[in-house]
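Progress against Task 2.4 (sequence-to-structure conversion) is shown through the following example record, which the project officer requested during the mid-term review.
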Amino acid sequence: MEKVVIPLCYIARHGATKLNQQDCFRGRVDVELDAEGRRDAHKLATYFEDVELSQIVSSDRKRAEETADIIGRRKGMEVYVTPALRAFNVGMFSGKPKNKENTDALQEYIDNPDKRIPEGESLNEFKNRIRPALEEACELARERGKPLLLLAHSSIVHEAGSMIHNDHEAILVEPGGVAMIFLTDDGELDAAPIYKRRPSASVQRADTIS
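Structure tokens generated for the chain above:
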């Protein structure tokens, strides 16, 4: 018998940007979608066209907000925008290439999660910002009887995987992909990638976090 799942929260990763294409950390850089990213956003709008949602909530970064707006227009829904869903602020690494020198340097802060990245935040500060937002989204979904859609960043998908599975790579998706937090038929909280899943790879967290 197929398991019944109750969706609580869809986490959609924004469409591609020039920094994605260049394999650079995004972090605090407020980069816009590129042409491919806008195509990603329209594909997401098609994906969610017939999905019943209680609310669309977006990071206030341009790349997420533009993606959310395209979906919202298709569904006739307003988008609530919040800085709480911003990507992990990797500070001085933002906009820099993900070469060995930079990923090794960033990994030092990942391995020491209370250590704040210059011009950014510590990993634990990021976790303490994102986990309550994810928990609140799930609680609102339970109260309203309909799931929420969060338009955010790869680092938020990392954190959802870490929160549910204790594995930050468990539910990774490509730009324009979707992960879902849901209740199983036995009432357990679970999460999985459901659209444009990222292939498994043994990589440092610093390579994929921003």
